Amino acid sequence: MEEKGVFGSPWTNLWEDIFMKRFAVAAGFAAALMSATAVPAVELEVTHWWTSAGEAASIAEFARIFEEETGNTWVDSALAGSGTGANPVIISRILGGNPMGATQMNTGRDAEELIQAGLMRDLTDIAEEMNIRDFYVDESLLEPCTYEGRIYCFPINIHSWDWLWLSTAAYEKIGQPVPTDWNEYVDSWPALEEAGILPFGLASGWPISGVPGVLIAGIGGTDLIIAINRDKSVEAVRSDKFREVAEALDDLRSVISPEMQVPSFGDVGNQLLAGEAAGNIHGDWLQGDLQIAGGVPGEDYECLPALGLNDMLTGGGDSFYFPVLPEGTDPAVIEAQTQLARILLSPEAQLAFNLKKGSMPIRTDIDLSQANACMQKALVLLDNGLLPSGDFALSSDTQQQLQDLSIEFINDDNISVDAYIDRYASIIESAD
Q: Which helix (H) or strand (E) holds 45?
């Protein structure tokens, strides 16, 4: 029996063979055409100031997921100096017409003039497509990103300065239990100094900037931090409550001197793990470095949110902005911006990033059972809401003035408490 072709006739085998060969050629041509018209892989430059060990490990998670899911290349542009050092570089590049594809900045007012000038990409359509208001843990974080009802940045975590970090090894050396609040910690300073242990480790430069705000929220309390940061109340700065804060800062500088300061907050973390320093006030991103160094909360160090004195935390964090790119930019780069914006808020990226960063994720719908003991403490307090942090409520100029005042006060014993209060009040009075 003759074999029949697919067209049903033994005489059509030859024609079937010709047809199939031509079909294969046509299919190959179509595939080549589709490949030629597909969006090509591109490079997307991302600027940020995450340069410590823990920070570098966390940003690497965003880069990994972006490249795996899109096939594009994350071009990492890390800038030293945290917000106060990196912000001017970021802003000048955008103003100068040489914007990056995406940039991290504080969740706050640092970019408000760029937004108002139309230099940041409108992300509202992406936000609505993702229904971000359904999973954001605190919608107030979107306020600094919103201008005239449109969204121009995505907060990607919640950070808080309000942490007292304590060294287990240091307290073992002096035979005392690790303190449970600020007052017990201060009471331990004489024994620590007698044993040759630094009561308070401090990195030079910007890390002192967060300390007064932590003292205001912890010692002064919720009403005081709201009055100063949100309401810009000069009367609150001149109150007895704020004087307690200023006196606590004065006590703190008595156990700190410029020659004791180390280059970075990561170095302070190493001092804590080694028992060379007993304590430090610093944001929760410190635990990222402590983790990289092998530290385990509850074993090698303790973390006290709000100095162990308050049941609320000030909160800010980090956001990503996507500058408007110059006319003529490859549409594939603009599409890469869109892809990254979605990925930053995805459950996978939120979990991977924040577990290494030490911050709290902005999503309420992800499994945080892997979170360490410090993050678990923060998540409990997060149910009480967030207090306004300085970088959330104050302009960049005001933040810089307060930072300069804090550094000067810590380093110069000749500045009295009264002078500190007067200068702080003057800065708040002119704050916008």
A: strand 43-48
Closest of 71, 77, 70 to residue 102, by C-alpha: 77
Assess if CATH 3.10.150.10 describes domain 163-313+412-429. no
Render pLDDT for 3-39 as a digit per residue (tens, 0 to 9).
333 334 333 343 344 334 444 434 443 443 333 345 5
> Hey, how many other C-beta atoms are within 10 angstroms of the C-beta on 292?
18
Contacts of 18 (CB under 8 A, 6+ apart): none
Domain boundaries, the chain: 43-159+316-362, 163-313+412-429
Region of 370 (left: φ > 0; alpha: ψ -120 to 50; beta: rest) is alpha
Q: Which residues contact 68 (CB under 8 A, 6 or more apart)?
A: none
Report the half-sphere exposure of 74 (CA within 13 A, side-chain side). 24
Rounded CA gap, 247 and 253, in Å?
10
Q: Tell which CATH architecture fits domain 43-159+316-362.
A: 3-Layer(aba) Sandwich (3.40)
The one-letter amino acid code at 268 reads V
Comparing CA positions, the residue from 225, 424, 418, 193 lying closest to residue 307 is 225
pTM given for the model: 0.81
Cα within 13 Å of Cα(61), Cβ side? 19
Are the folds of 43-159+316-362 and 163-313+412-429 the same?
A: yes
Q: 78-132 pLDDT, tens per residue? A: 998 666 678 899 999 999 999 999 999 987 788 889 999 999 999 999 999 999 9
At 7, the amino acid letter reads F
Query: What is the mean pLDDT of the segment spanning 362-391?
Result: 89
Q: How far apart are alpha carbons 100 and 63 in whole angstroms?
A: 15
Residue spans of alpha helices (H) in 195-275: 211-215, 222-225, 234-237, 240-253, 265-274
pLDDT digits (tens, 9 = 90+) for 288-338: 999 999 999 999 999 999 999 999 999 888 999 999 999 999 999 999 999
